[in-house]
Write a structure and sequence with these properties.
It contains 6 helices and 7 strands; from the N terminus they run E-H-H-H-H-E-E-E-H-E-H-E-E. It is of the alpha+beta class. The chain has a 7-stranded mixed sheet with strand order 1-2-3-4-5-7-6, sandwiched between helices.
Length: 173
Amino acid sequence: MLNERVILRAVEPDDVDFIYQLENDPENWHVSNTIVPFSRFAVEQYVLSSNQDIFALKQLRLIIIANDSPEQKLIGAIDLFDFDPIHKRAGIGIIIIFEEQRKGYATATLKLIIDYCFNTLALHQIYCNVTADNKPSLDLFQKLGFVSCGVKRDWIFQNNEWKDELILQLLYR
């Protein structure tokens, strides 16, 4: 999948170092619900098993590549999780490396994955979970039509404080 800004592709064995870096950055742990680093071996095993399709694993990770840079730099990942083909829904999570944030890559990526979810997977809805204080993420999802539909109060404990987590949904039009 691609557009003028980004390419989304399956995880490849050469991505181990990139995924290892993403998963082991403590700044990202609050969104992945982890508090310990992953071993390189664990990441390698994940990459080796990630070639199964979404119907088998109930999840999918795609690597985000900057299509508008000459070297086609790896800049992030987007995940579909809790894939439920019976009820036609999936969760979505996106991460862009810090130095590439706020350049429009997340918007371009979400446009592609929304199209994939609704037109290829034939989903009825996708959803995401965002802490109430994460204004850039809230703005991103809302700009693309996601609507807040619930609040999980004091759901995330981060930096010695409790944070509410919002649930946002996008229903197929």
